[in-house]
Amino acid sequence: MPTRVINQQINTNDVGGMIEYVLLGDALVRATPLILAGLAVAIAFRAGVLNIGAEGQLLVGAAASAAVSVSAAAIGIAVIPLALVAGAFAGALWAGIAAELRRRFHVLEIISTIMLNFIALHMVSFMVRGPLQEPSRIYPQTESLPLAAQLPIIAPGTRLHLGFLIAIAIACVLAWVFRSTAAGFRIRAVGSSRSAAATAGMINVDRTTYRVFLISGSLAGLAGAVEVSGVTFALYENISPGYGYTAIAVALIAGLSPARVIASGIFFGILETGAGALQRDFGIPSSTALVTEALLILLAIGLASIRGRATHPFAGR
Amino acid sequence: MLEISKKFGHQVALDSVELSVKPGTVHALLGENGAGKTTLLRIAFGMIQPDSGAIRIRGHEAKLTSPADAIGRRIGMVHQHYALVPSMSVAENVALGGKGRYRSDRTAELVRAVGDRTGLRLEPDRIVSTLTSADRQKLEIIRALAHDVSILILDEPATVLSEADARDLFIQLRVFAGNGGSVVLITHKLRDAMKHADEVTVLRRGQRVLNASVSHLTEASVTAAMLGRPVARAVTRGRDRPATTLEPAIVLKDAVISSTGGVDSLSAINLEIRRGEIIGIAALDGAARSLLRTIAGRTMAVSGSVSIPATVGFVPENRQEDAILPDASLFDNIALKNSGQRKGLLDWHHIRQLTMNVVHQFDVRTDDPGQPVSTLSGGNQQRFVLGRELQGDPAAIVLENPTQGLDVQAAADIHHRLRTASDSGCTVVFYSSDLDEIAELSHRVLVVNNRKLLSVEPERHAIGRALLGVEAGTDAIGPTASGVETRVNSSDRAANSADPRHQSADQHQ
């Protein structure tokens, strides 16, 4: 797996505490795209937009930010925000295709977004073999990001990067938007009942839906950008081990509440990192983590149906 | 049903209630909201189990643990809120819940057979979402009848029906009873009960307070039994029209109104409504929908000019879908109003205050406004919505069937509040399928007929005639009576021919 290509070598002879520290860092690193993509799914689902294309939006975001980072490296540290914005923008654009299809032709987004996932996947394959391939043309990946384009590490000795804080900050902002702003209320109202939102609230339902779609896409795109700028430092195929899909579970288990997405994102990060460690150290197949995830999702859905409104737009207030 | 008791939590819904329905009769079950009518009949249909008491059907004790049990004993129920699948066809909805293979041709035939037998005709291939409320109600009844029931329970069947449709319905129920069936009718409309039922049972707060044959009763005695106290009628009838010199609040000039459905299109409407006027609109089911929504500022006219005040309250007919977010709290539902125009932050403190104002001023009974609004009873929800829409003294308010499904007391209360609003200068425009309500409440009446608006005196017969068209003045009795005749005959035929199908239905069970 090329995920570990740039991994710093960990001195496993260190004391156990050190390993735990590093592993925790790894878990949070892993949680970062899950939180961002989880927020993308949560905000969309809250508005009744079934965007399950976070994976594709994430890949497109990763590709765009890698392209910007590599080609605009000359401008120094300013390339980081530029790359992140490019990723978010590309994600929004990708979601915008599905949004436009829905608006004009009433194409169900649940179909279009999942289709666009595959297109994004193959587009990345093409990019890393074509226009964005590293200069030696040996490996199907972009050249490594220059140091100035890499997100700074926030916990020395780990790989934990600034992207984690960005994810937390965005989650907090979204929680505040939902709780306190008129725009956030509109999103919840539209997700709760489109006809009541339009008739009683005089909300422009189509416009709200459209905007949410774009915001959702931009968050997923940002997840991809952060992954490239903070972890992989290059774009290649399989850059995402299904973050965009796991994000759906992250969002659902969080009851679509942005604040709780942080917790469930970290939880999934720990689960997936731990699975790797278990396989290395104890030979327990890492697929047990997938089984656990699946069981958790089933459990969450079961509980939601018992409680009736756990995944409802007005739950968790 | 003998000594039926039922508690929900520590609230007693039914306290040793008895109900006996004779074959061949129409039995009306009356009572205020929350008197236990629906609960009692849900027990009779096996939807809920009583805490104590017994049910006897045709002399045999029956234990009904599910609607399937009830259907097996030839009991059918027509629900207050449609239990239909909108994306399916009429025939498919009829077949729903049946066993074995679905055969579209057979079910279609069944639907037509029921139509021949009872006069309730619907095209089996129509998709339910394209049906009007009246047709959906029809479909519910067809579905119940398709199972060949001998006891038919109807929960508020006439609330969404136009006058003519309701009359048809009662004729058909009479035919059904005439063939030896029993009909149990829950209704709020006293007049319907007195006119169409043979026997009346009145519940009040979970107890039976009256049971007698209609011929021994007067409207006043039944009302007294329902309420336990005299109805608080509004003191003034509110007929004193506001001075004609007042400036107009709503003006439509050559407005062309249309919707995709087309049934409620109107051409070249010229209309001037003054401040403080109460305008009642009479129309066939759904025909005034777009007009009301245009006046309420919810839809745009196709052409012509429409001038309405900046703030217009709107109380739509379909409360669950259009007026409230059922799963959201009362606070959220107050915040919903005008949320499309709001910018920046929401002032939750202010919204809480508004909510409490509405709760107090409009007598919304709730323990906790943080609870979902769906936990309120229908009458409370309606008062809540009305209160919300009247907050901030809007220049006008538009209502569709404002008292639909409410009991006498609650309806009188809503009327009173609308008159009060009108007195303080608010223009009230409302549609109602109840012509008595229109005649009683309005200063001026508009009738939608043949894509035109007619202005009519607020007098019941005038409205009724205008609604039916000019020449309809003579139709009142003659054709209806002969209609009964022919329907009885055709239903006899259908009953005979229906026998083999009945047996095959039994085999399915």
How many strand elements of chain B? 19
What topology, given as strand order, has the largest sheet of chain B?
Answer: 6-7-8-3-9-10
Report the CATH topology name of chain A.
ABC transporter involved in vitamin B12 uptake, BtuC
CATH-level-2 architecture of chain A: Orthogonal Bundle
Whole-number average pLDDT of chain A? 88
Biggest interface found: A-B, 24 and 30 residues
- Overall 3D form of chain B: globular
Extract low-pLDDT stretches of chain A: 1-12
Sheet with most strands of chain B: 6 strands, mixed
What class do helices, strands and sheet pairing of chain A give?
Answer: mainly alpha
Helix fraction bin of chain A: 55-70%
CATH superfamily of the largest domain in chain B: P-loop containing nucleotide triphosphate hydrolases
CATH T-level fold name of the largest domain in chain B: Rossmann fold
Rg over alpha carbons of chain B: 24 Å
Mean pLDDT of chain B equals 77
CATH class of the largest domain in chain B: Alpha Beta
Summarize the amount of helix of chain B as a percent range.
25-40%
Summarize the structure in words:
The complex is a heterodimer of chains A (317) and B (509). Chain A has 317 residues and is mainly alpha-helical. In chain A, 69% of the residues lie in helices and 0% in strands. Chain A is built from eleven helices and no strands. In chain A, helix 2 (54-71) crosses helix 8. The termini of chain A are far apart. Mean pLDDT of chain A is 88; it is low at 1-12. By secondary structure, chain B is of the alpha/beta class. Chain B has two domains: 2-230 and 485-508, P-loop containing nucleotide triphosphate hydrolases (Rossmann fold, 3-Layer(aba) Sandwich), CATH 3.40.50.300; 248-471, Rossmann fold, CATH 3.40.50. In chain B, the strands form four sheets. Chain B has a six-stranded mixed beta sheet, with helices on both faces. In chain B, strand 16, helix 14 (408-423) and strand 17 (427-431) form a beta-alpha-beta unit. The longest helix of chain B has 20 residues, at 478-497. The model of chain B is unreliable at 230-238 and 470-509 (pLDDT under 50). At the A-B interface, helix 6 and helix 7 of A face helix 10 and helix 11 of B.
